[in-house]
Design a protein that fits this description.
Blueprint lengths: L1 H19 L2 H4 L5 E3 L10 H10 L18 E4 L5 H11 L4 E2 L13 H6 L6 H15 L4
Parallel strand pairs: 1-2, 2-3
Amino acid sequence: MSNVVSNPLETTLATSHLIHAGVPRRHPRIKFYTAHGGGFFPFYLGRFDHAWETREECRVHIDQPPSAYIDSFYFDTVVFRPQQIRHLVDLVGAEHVMLGTDSPYDMGETDPVGLVDQVEGLSATERDLILGNGARKLLRMN
Protein backbone atom coordinates (compact mmCIF):
# COMPACT_ATOMS: atom_id res chain seq x y z
CA MET A 1 0.00 0.00 0.00
CA SER A 2 2.93 2.35 0.45
CA ASN A 3 3.14 2.99 -3.30
CA VAL A 4 -0.53 3.90 -3.43
CA VAL A 5 -0.25 6.69 -0.85
CA SER A 6 3.48 7.37 -0.56
CA ASN A 7 4.27 8.23 -4.17
CA PRO A 8 1.62 10.98 -4.50
CA LEU A 9 2.43 12.16 -0.98
CA GLU A 10 6.14 12.41 -1.80
CA THR A 11 5.28 14.38 -4.95
CA THR A 12 3.18 16.72 -2.79
CA LEU A 13 5.99 17.18 -0.28
CA ALA A 14 8.61 17.77 -2.96
CA THR A 15 6.46 20.39 -4.69
CA SER A 16 5.68 22.11 -1.40
CA HIS A 17 9.33 22.12 -0.33
CA LEU A 18 10.46 23.56 -3.67
CA ILE A 19 7.94 26.40 -3.45
CA HIS A 20 8.41 27.14 0.25
CA ALA A 21 12.21 27.10 -0.14
CA GLY A 22 11.76 29.85 -2.73
CA VAL A 23 13.22 27.93 -5.67
CA PRO A 24 10.64 29.10 -8.27
CA ARG A 25 10.86 32.65 -6.88
CA ARG A 26 14.65 32.76 -7.24
CA HIS A 27 14.75 30.79 -10.50
CA PRO A 28 11.55 31.61 -12.39
CA ARG A 29 12.79 30.08 -15.66
CA ILE A 30 13.11 26.59 -14.14
CA LYS A 31 10.11 24.37 -14.88
CA PHE A 32 9.20 21.30 -12.83
CA TYR A 33 7.33 18.26 -14.11
CA THR A 34 5.52 16.36 -11.37
CA ALA A 35 4.20 12.82 -11.48
CA HIS A 36 0.92 11.56 -10.01
CA GLY A 37 -0.95 14.69 -11.11
CA GLY A 38 1.21 16.66 -8.68
CA GLY A 39 0.05 14.48 -5.80
CA PHE A 40 -2.27 16.42 -3.54
CA PHE A 41 -0.60 19.77 -4.13
CA PRO A 42 -2.72 21.29 -6.93
CA PHE A 43 -5.92 20.07 -5.28
CA TYR A 44 -5.02 21.75 -1.97
CA LEU A 45 -3.72 25.07 -3.30
CA GLY A 46 -6.30 26.87 -1.19
CA ARG A 47 -4.94 25.27 1.97
CA PHE A 48 -1.35 26.11 1.04
CA ASP A 49 -2.34 29.73 0.31
CA HIS A 50 -4.25 29.96 3.59
CA ALA A 51 -1.20 28.70 5.49
CA TRP A 52 0.93 31.33 3.73
CA GLU A 53 -1.49 34.03 4.90
CA THR A 54 -1.70 32.81 8.49
CA ARG A 55 1.65 31.18 9.31
CA GLU A 56 4.85 33.17 9.34
CA GLU A 57 7.04 30.12 8.63
CA CYS A 58 5.25 29.73 5.30
CA ARG A 59 6.40 33.21 4.21
CA VAL A 60 10.10 32.98 5.09
CA HIS A 61 11.35 32.38 1.54
CA ILE A 62 8.40 33.43 -0.60
CA ASP A 63 6.72 36.81 -0.93
CA GLN A 64 3.55 35.58 -2.64
CA PRO A 65 1.15 32.75 -1.87
CA PRO A 66 2.15 29.31 -3.23
CA SER A 67 -0.47 29.49 -5.98
CA ALA A 68 1.49 32.39 -7.50
CA TYR A 69 4.27 29.92 -8.36
CA ILE A 70 2.07 27.27 -9.93
CA ASP A 71 3.10 28.32 -13.45
CA SER A 72 6.52 26.81 -12.75
CA PHE A 73 4.94 23.36 -12.45
CA TYR A 74 3.55 20.81 -14.88
CA PHE A 75 1.43 17.83 -13.89
CA ASP A 76 0.93 14.44 -15.49
CA THR A 77 -2.41 12.71 -16.08
CA VAL A 78 -1.72 9.58 -14.01
CA VAL A 79 -4.71 10.17 -11.74
CA PHE A 80 -6.93 7.34 -13.08
CA ARG A 81 -10.20 9.25 -13.30
CA PRO A 82 -11.32 11.62 -16.06
CA GLN A 83 -12.99 13.83 -13.42
CA GLN A 84 -9.63 14.36 -11.71
CA ILE A 85 -8.03 15.38 -15.00
CA ARG A 86 -10.92 17.82 -15.54
CA HIS A 87 -10.38 19.27 -12.07
CA LEU A 88 -6.63 19.51 -12.65
CA VAL A 89 -7.21 21.36 -15.93
CA ASP A 90 -9.63 23.70 -14.16
CA LEU A 91 -7.04 24.37 -11.43
CA VAL A 92 -3.83 24.84 -13.42
CA GLY A 93 -4.85 25.07 -17.09
CA ALA A 94 -4.45 22.49 -19.85
CA GLU A 95 -1.08 23.97 -20.80
CA HIS A 96 0.23 22.66 -17.46
CA VAL A 97 -1.23 19.15 -17.74
CA MET A 98 0.68 16.56 -19.74
CA LEU A 99 0.04 12.99 -20.71
CA GLY A 100 1.54 10.48 -18.31
CA THR A 101 1.61 6.69 -18.28
CA ASP A 102 3.83 5.33 -15.47
CA SER A 103 4.26 2.39 -17.82
CA PRO A 104 5.43 -0.37 -17.53
CA TYR A 105 4.74 -0.36 -13.79
CA ASP A 106 1.61 -1.90 -12.32
CA MET A 107 0.35 1.52 -11.22
CA GLY A 108 0.62 2.79 -14.79
CA GLU A 109 -2.35 3.99 -16.78
CA THR A 110 -3.18 1.30 -19.37
CA ASP A 111 -4.92 3.66 -21.82
CA PRO A 112 -3.70 7.20 -21.14
CA VAL A 113 -5.08 8.70 -24.36
CA GLY A 114 -8.43 6.98 -23.77
CA LEU A 115 -8.55 8.42 -20.26
CA VAL A 116 -7.99 11.94 -21.61
CA ASP A 117 -10.68 11.34 -24.24
CA GLN A 118 -13.16 10.56 -21.43
CA VAL A 119 -12.71 14.01 -19.85
CA GLU A 120 -16.00 15.90 -20.20
CA GLY A 121 -15.96 19.39 -21.61
CA LEU A 122 -12.36 19.25 -22.81
CA SER A 123 -11.91 21.41 -25.90
CA ALA A 124 -9.90 20.17 -28.88
CA THR A 125 -7.19 22.71 -27.99
CA GLU A 126 -7.03 21.49 -24.38
CA ARG A 127 -6.88 17.86 -25.53
CA ASP A 128 -4.06 18.64 -27.96
CA LEU A 129 -2.14 20.50 -25.25
CA ILE A 130 -2.42 17.54 -22.89
CA LEU A 131 -1.57 14.94 -25.53
CA GLY A 132 1.59 16.63 -26.73
CA ASN A 133 1.36 20.26 -27.79
CA GLY A 134 2.00 21.44 -24.23
CA ALA A 135 5.12 19.28 -23.96
CA ARG A 136 6.34 20.48 -27.37
CA LYS A 137 5.85 24.07 -26.23
CA LEU A 138 7.60 23.47 -22.89
CA LEU A 139 10.53 21.75 -24.61
CA ARG A 140 10.59 24.39 -27.38
CA MET A 141 10.00 21.80 -30.09
CA ASN A 142 7.45 23.86 -32.05
